[in-house]
Structures are given as C-alpha cells and as structure tokens.
Specification:
Layout lengths: L1 H7 L11 E10 L3 E10 L2 E5 L11 E4 L4 E4 L4 E5 L5 E5 L3 H24 L16 H46 L5 H37 L1 H39 L34 E5 L2 H13 L45 H4 L17 E5 H6 L6 H8 L3 H14 L10 E3 L6 E6 L5 E9 L4 E8 L3 E13 L3 E7 L2 E5 L5 E4 L3 E5 L7 E12 L5 E6 L12 E7 L5 E8 L3 E12 L10 E5 L3 E5 L15 H6 L15 H7 L3 H30 L16 E5 L6 E5 L3 H7 L10
Parallel strand pairs: 8-24, 9-10
Antiparallel strand pairs: 1-2, 1-7, 2-3, 3-4, 5-6, 6-7, 11-12, 12-13, 13-14, 14-15, 14-16, 15-18, 16-17, 17-19, 18-19, 19-20, 20-21, 21-22, 22-23, 23-24, 23-25, 26-27
Helix pairs in contact: 3-4, 3-5, 9-10, 12-13
Keywords: Coiled coil, Lipid transport, Lipid-binding, Membrane, Phosphoprotein, Transport
Protein name: Oxysterol-binding protein
GO molecular function: sterol binding
Length: 753
Amino acid sequence: IIAVVMSESKPPTPTPGDTYKGWLFKWTNYIKGYQRRWFVLSNGLLSYYRTQAEMGHTCRGTINLATANIAVEDSCNFVISNGGAQTYHLKASSEVERQRWITALELAKAKAVRMQAESDDSGDECPAMPPTSGQGGGGRNSEVQSTLRTLGSKVEDLTTCNDLIVKHGSALQRSLSELEGLRVGGDMGEKIRQVTERATLFRITSNAMINACRDFLSLAQNHSKRWQKALQAERDQRIRLEETLEQLAKQHNHLERAFRGATVLPSSFSGVSGKGDASDEDDDNEFFDAMEDPAEFITVPADPKYHRLVRLSCSSHNSLSVCFDELSLASNPDSPQSLELEPVRQRRTRIPDKPNYYLNLWSIMKNCIGKELSKIPMPVNFNEPLSMLQRLSEDLEYYELLDKAAKCQSSLEQMCYVAAFTVSSYSTTVHRTGKPFNPLLGETFELDRLRECGYRSLCEQVSHHPPAAAHHAASEKGWSLRQEITLASKFRGKYLSIMPLGSIQCLFEKSNNHYSWKKVTTTVHNIIVGKLWIDQSGEIDVVNHRTGDRCHLKFAPYSYFSRDVPRKVTGVVTDKDGKAHYVLSGTWDEKMEFSRVMQSSKGENGTEGKQRTVYQTLKAKEIWKKNPLPEGAENMYYFSSLALTLNEPEEGIAPTDSRRRPDQRLMEDGRWDEANAEKQRLEEKQRTARREREREAVKAVNSPEEGAHPDNYQALWFEKLDDPVSGETLHVYKGGYWEAKDQGNWDMCPDIF
C-alpha cells in the first residue's frame, strides 16, 4: 500500500533555466595560452564565440551540460568535460565571477538532466526561457522554493500513509479484540495482547513522525522569507564587491598603460627586464584585468665596455681572490679534501606512506578562530611526523652556500651567498601543509652530519608559553649559525598566519663578519575549503654588523592580478653608504640568481611619487637551485631527502631527542589512533610538570630565609645572553652536549617522554 501511495505522488516541478552570457578565458594551446572568448549558456548548452558579433553566424563550439562534468581547479579556473570528446579549460576574471558561472552551470545542468529524464526527445526542442535578472540570487531562491515544495509533497505522502496505517491498525485491533473474546488458551490470549500493544505503539510512533514532519514544514515556511532576504542581501553585496574590484582593476590598468607610454629610455636601455617590461605578447593575448605592484627597481644589461673592463681588471690584478668575468662568483673551487676514507652511514630514503584518513577540519577549527595555533589541541591527522625542532634543522639543507660564503674574500660577495641561504630555507615549505609537532619543554634534537657534511647542530625547546626554540650549528668550514625562534600564529577562518619572531645570526671565523636577519610571514590558505597552499610574504634585511653591508630581500605575496612569476623574491646588496653592488632575483621554491651592478640611475617616472632605480648589470648567474624531491614524495608528506632522515632512529642520542618521542614515532608508522592517545598523555604529563614547577615557585617566594625567587625554567644546553654586536638578547649554546654524548652520560636530562 505504501509503495502504491508513493508512486502516485508527483515530483516537484522543474525550475526553468536562465540564459547566461559573459567573457571567459579559454585555454587554446601552449603557444597562445588562454584566449578571451564570449560564452553563452542557454537550454542546457554552453557555446562560445570569438566575439559577440559572431553569435549570429559562427559558433566555435558547444557542449551539452546534461552529460558534462564540472570541476573547480582553484580560485578562478574550472574545467568542463563530457567524458573525453570535449574538454574546456576556462578561467574567470575573478573568484566572484567564477562562482557566478559555476552556479549558473550547475543549475543549467540540473535542469537539463531533469528534462532529459522526462522526455526521450532532445533537450534542444524545449523553448528557450527569456533571461531574468539576478541569476545568482534568483536561482538560489527558486531552489529554496523547490525544496519547500518537495518537503510538502513528502509530508502529504506521509499523511496518506498514516491515514492508511490508522485505518488498518484499527481494523487489526478490532479483529484481535474479537479473537481475545473467544477465550482460547491462556498462552494464546497473552500473545494476542502483546500484538495489540505493539500495534498501538506503532500507531503512536507513526503519529509522532507525521507531527514532527508537519512542524518542520511549518517552520521552514515561516522562515522562507527570511532566507530569501538573506540570500538577496548576499547577492547584492557580491555584486557591489565585484563592481568595486572591476573598477579598481580598470583604474590600475589605465595607470600602468599611462606609465608605459610616458617612459622613454635611452637606446642602451632597450633590453629592459623584470617588472615593467614590454610584454612579448600582443595586446589581444594579454589578460585585460592583469594588475601588479610596481617594482622598486629595474635591471638592464650593462654596456659591453664593462665586460671588457672586468676582464682586464682580472688579468692585471692577480692579487685579487675573485675575478668577476661575467660575474663568475659561483665558481669557487673546493679546498683539497683529505684522502683518508671514513665509513659514512647510509641514511634511509623512504618512510611509510601517509595513510588516507579523513577528518573534518572545520569541526575542530570553527571554535578556534582568532586563537593562537600553539594553544589549539589538534589531532595528529593534521601533523607531519616531525617536530618543530626538526623543521628548524631543515634550514641547513643547503649548507653548501655557507661553505662557499666562508671562502669569500669580499664581504659583498659573501652577503650574496648568505642572502641565498636565507631564501633557500623556505624551499622545503612549498608543499608541506602538515603541521609539525609542538616540542615539549626541554625536548632536544641533534643533527650530526660532521662526517658527511662537516657540520652538526643542536636544537632545544627553551620555553613553552610562548613556544620558543634555540638552535646552534657549527661547521668545520669556519661558520656558525644560531637562532632563537618564537612562533606567533593566528587562525583567521580562511587562512592561517604564522609570524616567526626572533632573529637568526651567522658568524664567520676568518673574516669576523657577523650577519643577522629575521624570517618572513608564512600563510596557509584554504584552511576550510579547497586545496591547502602556502605563501611566504614580507621583507628581510640581512645586515653585516661589522662592515655595514646590507641586503634587502622582498618576498612578493601571491596575487591573481600579477603577471609576474609566483613566489618571486628580489633583493639588492648595498654597502654602508647605500651604493648597490649586486642584484638578486628568483623564486623561493626553485632557484636564485645574482648579477653584479655596474651602474645605477634614478628613473624619471614612478608611482605614488617614488622613483624607481635602474641598475645596469652583468649577465646573471645561478647561485642556488632547489634539489629535486625524492621519488614518491607526494606519499611521504612531500619530505625532502634530508627530511626523510631526520626522524630515523639513532643510537647514543639524548633521551630528550625528538626521535624518541612516542606519538611522533607512532604517527610515522601509520598508527594514528595510538598516536593521538599518546599525544594526549604527553601533553597532560607536561601540564602536570608545569603545575608542579609553579607550586615550587610559590614555595620559594614564601621562603625568605632561602632568598629564593619564583622559578623560571632554565634550559639545559643554552643560556640567555645579550649579544654586544647585534644588541639582541637570545639563547646561546653554552656547550657540554657533544661531550655528554661522547661519554654517554645523560643523567642531567629531564624525563619528558
């Protein structure tokens, strides 16, 4: 009976689709790239033309949405494919425009599918509906109304079913009552009473179900106007934002074109490169909405006479340690190595593949907006099997740059290598969206590469709130590195900002050059929806405190409107008088190049009253290039070759070393449930230890006869000192760790695991 009733109910009336038109960029080939095309969506068909004038006679292509698949790639790109025969790679001018197209396409596809299911005829025979205003908001409002009609239809079905159940249930009860009146055996009468009770309960449950459905429908109808008003307000706000953004884009584009038209360079500057260049493409192939921030400087090829002067200078001054022929700074020969062969440990090249466990991030992060990341309890599902101390040690992956810098006789040349080393430390973060484990207070990590690479380093977590880690590295090649990093992080809903506080210092024994710099801000985008991606943005000043030399590096934030390469880094090396000597350029995820400046001059035109400097440089040379990732890195958290070895078990390490951390080890082995339980145990143990230290501190304050003061946690291997050169206060390695390791004496280490 229920099946018959359900089959008699009518489905909701299909919502008529709208005609939608607009400009999109369509991928053509690798030579022409994306080309601007006019797209028309009507009657479940998406067609495109080169211009609006072609609509009357020439259609360049059509795809049926009834059998098509619509996929979103990123903020502006999306793909429409019908199974292989036709595939359109499209790009909208903005994220707002892309969402409007996606909404229209999805509604048109739903309508086409419904129409195809209702009739065997082609969907093209359906009469075209006239376009209506408010495509986005109207489509959503009609969808809400359709949902309400569907709910009403279902409730009517349930009401009919309930009436039938009541009717037949009453008849069943009457029949059972008659059977009970026959006074058959006692057991039979008991069974009949049980059946009667169950039938009554069934009827009561059915009534409750239908009442609940009726209440829900009534509530939905009462709030329908409020929903429609909210949707309309959202649509109006999006339209206003879109119009404002489009206006700003046009204004910026006009200013940029005006700047290009007003700029007149001498004939020797005809080879201008970098931002502000004349595009190699025709105006027809340029994106009309392309925008970018003005560059601070322009580099141009130097006059050929400078190349000859450099060669003559190199041949006549043999006392110079470096000969700049076409800026061949990268050709520093290594010093002869000892012929004695020592066995080198074979490091691992793989770790267990990352399990595919699903967890809803929003269910955890929705209550954490505005809080600091270090205070948010996170399961290991969002981690990678490395601690923050190990991530800090990854800065040494390109230690060869500091080895080469230690051999430089010129402080300006040395600055180029130090700046390249600064940029290289970010190359490991491009795909690393996993969060490292927060180190426990007193946790350490040693990276002993003395035999293989000539250096070794030590990290220690010296503070828990705020979290701070101290790092010291020393090399046999004559350099040492020390840093103390405190992370300040904020979750902003759509993205996560990580601001490293503290400084990094690099010292060279031979020249006594003392460099210092700070890190830029790291931003993790698409925290809630979409694919996670990482960006680095900000400025770094690398300062040589002995000579006054300085390198100003600028990490450009990603922008859709920029025609420049993403993740771009530019820098200028200047002496204490502000004179430029080298220019650096490249990307923080791939490579860096540097060029020697032969002459500089101020440009005549600028933006916001600022003049841009024009540098004449020799040919650029590569100073750093990222190492390729190991095979299968996408299944191993995108770890580099060095990162794969950081958590490898080793003998003789301290009991506080990150390799001995049990939750991190369980996660690497793929036992995430056990790792989560172990992580909670360690965090509770750390909280207990902290409360105990606070109680002891209170007792110390209340004991004047001892002259004690409140307890501040004292690091085991580092001590806090004032640096007289840089004027900063930081934790400095005080020694003793490697001696304790040689002796195998770890009695002084706390029990933190």
